[in-house]
## 1
Amino acid sequence: MAFNPLKEKGIAFDKQMKTWYDIVKRPYKREEVDCYTRTRQILMNGIETEAWGFKRAFCRMFDCEETKNLVARIRRIEDQQQTTINWLAPANQSVLDTTLGYEQVAVDLTAWLAQNEPDEYVKETLDFGLLEDFDHLYRYAQYSYLTEGTNPNDIVHGMTDVVLGRPTQNHHNCNGMRIRNAYDKANASPQTKANILTIVSAEQQTHNYYAEHGFMYGNDDLRRTYAEICDVEEEHVTMYETLIDPSETWLEKWVTHEFTEVCNYYTCYKDEVDPKLKQIWEEFLMMEVEHLQLAAEILKKKENREAEEIIGTTVYETCHFESQKKYVKEILNSQIDKRLNESQGYAFIDELPDDWTGYAVQEAQNKLGAPSETAIRISMSTLGRDVVSADNKLIKSQPELLERGLEDFSQAPNTVSIEEYQEFTEVPIPDFLKNDNKKEE
Ligand SMILES: [Fe+2]
Ligand SMILES: [Fe+2]
Ligand SMILES: [Fe+2]
Ligand SMILES: [Fe+2]
């Protein structure tokens, strides 16, 4: 790849301030947008929110007036970029529509990163998170249909399957147990650094979106489901952010942040099918090239280090979106019964001790029932089955998957049983749930 972000000519910093008319653009159309244009828009909003939040912390912690001055000025540009991107979503895209988009980001991005991650432990962590977000998509799809009459394929366009994953009620662990081993900054590939910051930004944005929007529905079961899944996203941020070497200096982290922005805009620009968004990705890419080079200059001045030592001389495609059904199925079949162990690694359910730390948390949180199970019960009472979208074989394997993936200990009292899933397989899938989107593989 010939794009070296430390050598390209970006947009001069004094040309980056925009008018209100440039910041706020016309949104895409809910009915017409490509599902992966929407996932790019959702992800890049999260990337900019992280760029902004990191620079807030930076100025509170970094004791140098000159550097703080520059970082504060760049931060305002990050904030303007965030507004532009987030507000590309149209006013008639509901909170649940957007939520399905968020979980589609989580599934298809995580699967992509796992297959493009050089560090085995980081890859294993991505595969672990993948099956949890995959289950979230399924739980939210119930409410999306029952509350708003939306077929999940109106949003995910048949590119991402909707069936159960590792059951959400089993995602609740001691947050201390979610802490992972950090990479070693001296040996980690720049690709690993950018991959992790990308997934951290996506998960943090998802957490924040649920925390800020779950209250916008009147249905208490749905509100509780948002609370439950929001709490899992908090665990996901913990899991991914602790992969980052905490001994990186503030300036090193700044360089890595700008580099991650460059990599993601580069990928968005390369992949985008909507000409209006493609233009935005291109412009923002060249703004980020300038941010990166400004950060690299400060690194040189303050620490006498070259940015190249930290990020190398090329970009990585950190957010390529395409259908990942095959990969997700593989991981689902081989790892649905995987859990965290007590020593920052992984174990299968059979290997967990009876006093495993996660059980106490699950008992405390689920003792009155898991809202993510109520989601399926509500579908059962209306449709006689759950809302799903996948090939028949995968749909029919749900009872078997549940049997392997659900823990016997500390089950929520309202858990939908394997027998009940077995009964679903007898109930035909209603026509309106069939995927009539032409984009299906
Ligand atoms: Fe930015
Ligand atoms: Fe999720
Ligand atoms: Fe997540
Ligand atoms: Fe930036």
## 2
Amino acid sequence: MLIKLFIQNQEGDFEFFENLQRILLKNLLSKKILLILFLFTAPAVADESKFVTYETDKCTFNLCNIELAKPAEKAIVFGISLIMDTYHNTFGLEFPDDYKVKVTIISGKENFDEYQQKLRGKVAPCIGFYSRGYREAVVLHKENEEKIKELNRVIGVVFHESSHMMFDYHIHNPPLWIDEGLAEYFEGLSVIGKNKRIFLQKNRQSWCKWWAKNGFPIELEEFLNLDYHQFYQFDSKGKNSQGYTIGYSLVYFMMSSNATENIFKEILQDIKKSGRQGKVDSVKIINENYEGGLERFERHWKSYILRTKESRPLRALRKHMDDKISSALEDSNDPNRSED
Ligand SMILES: [Zn+2]
């Protein structure tokens, strides 16, 4: 229990805490020492007075220095329920009826960084993050930007970070190409007006097209087998966030047909079954479940890159195409949002 509390009050590298947990157990430290450790490492509680918190269906909103207009709130709740439906219907990952995603939106960089410091113990140059310790999707709203455009961008990042939270509910320590690839995929979800689709991120797509013609910076098999640290090491090489970009492209491809969606489901179910310490063998699963194995899969992925359409329907959206979500946001809907 104490170990659980300790882990839940931390943010960041999960592997580190897994290892720490193992070491602590191995050395049979007394509960007293664990308690002292917990008291020393419990982060300060954020300044609650700045925040307005309330609950809706599927979400707990936690807002700082910003009021969310009803259409925007409705768009976020709708998008999050679609992502949840996709996790359930496509991957077989179910959520309890009362499950809620905690969405924290903070207006102003200073407020955001202050909150980041409190939750993560560090300030990274980002516009959103998921706090594993607090189970919370935190997104920066930039002041002084064009209002509607900024709101649409914020909604995209909310979907990205919320996808991490939903993923984390079921699967810990996943291959990052899947976790980040899916988050980037859902970041492209547009729920506005009749334009409800998943949009392709043009910048990432351009890189993949270039690689598909001129050669990728890594073999697919090697990429699929990268562990947590290797992934970030690979990602930081070059300026194009190549780990995120290749993971995103694979996810976009795999969500494009029933055959590849099923492989995705097999991979996620395999990680879930094998538990926290489990390491999935995506290559083996693709070889066993895709006709022609990894070699044909890779060929199909690369040829798909060259003919990828700008947007795709999302299965979970089919029955909602005529829902009126938020015409107030419709005019300036910018589907080409991207996170840094
Ligand atoms: Zn992410």
